[in-house]
Amino acid sequence: MKELREAILTKGVVLSDGVLKVDAFLNHQIDPILVSLIGKEFANRFKNDRITKVLTIESSGIAPALATALELNTQLVFARKKKSLTLSSNLLTASVHSFTKNESNEITVSKDFVKEGDNILIIDDFLANGEAALGLASLVEQANASIAGIGIVIEKSFQPGRKKLEAAGYRVESLARLSSLENKTVHFL
Ligand code: 5GP
Q1: How confident is the model at residue 140, as a pLDDT?
Q2: CA of 33 to the centre of ligand 1 (A)
Q3: Nearest-5° angle of CA 142, CA 147, CA 151?
Q4: Which pLDDT value is given to residue 123?
Q5: Which residues pair with 151 in a beta bridge?
Q6: What is the spatial distance between Cα 91 and Cα 110, in angstroms, rounded to a whole number?
Q7: pLDDT for res 125
Q8: pLDDT at position 82, please?
Q9: How far apart are CA 7 and CA 89, in angstroms?
Q10: What is the per-residue pLDDT for 94?
Q11: With 0-12 CB in 10 A as exposed, 13-18 as middle and 19+ as buried, what is 6?
Q12: Which residue from 27, 29, 100 has its CB within 8 A of the most atoms of ligand 1, so it is best to mutate?
């Protein structure tokens, strides 16, 4: 996606060889026009897959997932990282180790919103080690729903996430694929 590459190059900040900061358009301030284009692109890639629901994880996945759900005319569900007081039973849970925070979270989603018969598109902002996507996939599998694929806004292809997801049998669609962040520079695959 040309517009996404442009935003990464002009507004992204390389924090280290492993971490890209995109607070200017995706993770803190959100560019609605770019996010809307991201939604259109994911929807186009999965338009023939009869998606019944889009699933992401709070908070940075919500904007691109919402744009995608709007285009696909489906509902969006986001997994929570902290248990809500109003969401205490009837839950699916999985453990996810956070790449950026280096801590493990129990992620949860209500059984009311991910169900057998659903065909789910998982969306997330970044793919690094694949932990978040595998955790979301586990929630879907526990519900006996199916996974149409995993849509990633920015894939760091030099980290093992894609390999792990493909080895588990999932289709991965990434809108930007980075081959390296070395020397404070973004290189695309
Ligand atoms: P994974 O679970 O694949 O190891 O990491 C993906 C999750 O960690 C994403 O949900 C994202 O929030 C965060 N993440 C991983 N790498 C980066 C990065 O380079 N920059 C930012 N901003 N977030 C990242």
Answers
A1: 98
A2: 22
A3: 125
A4: 98
A5: 123, 173
A6: 5
A7: 98
A8: 83
A9: 41
A10: 97
A11: exposed
A12: 100
pLDDT value of residue 179: 98
pLDDT along the chain (189 residues), means of 10: 98 98 98 98 98 97 98 98 74 93 92 97 98 98 98 98 98 98 97
Q: What is the DSSP letter of 183?
A: G
| Nearest CA residue ID for atom 22, ligand 1 | 21
- Beta-bridged to residue 155, according to DSSP, are 127, 177
Q: Pocket around ligand 1: residues whose beta carbon is below 6 Å from it?
A: 19-22, 27, 60, 99-100, 124-132, 161
Distance from the CA of 40 to the center of ligand 1, in angstroms? 22
Chain centroid to CA 15: how far? 21
C-alpha angle 28/125/13, rounded to 5°? Answer: 55
Q: How high is the pLDDT of residue 87?
A: 57
Instruction: Specify the CATH number for 32-179; select among 3.40.630.30, 3.40.50.2020, 3.40.50.10540, 3.40.50.300.
Output: 3.40.50.2020
How many whole angstroms from 188 Cα to the centroid of ligand 1? 17
Q: How far is CA 27 from CA 9, 64, 124, 186, in A?
A: 15, 10, 11, 18
Domain ranges of the chain: 32-179
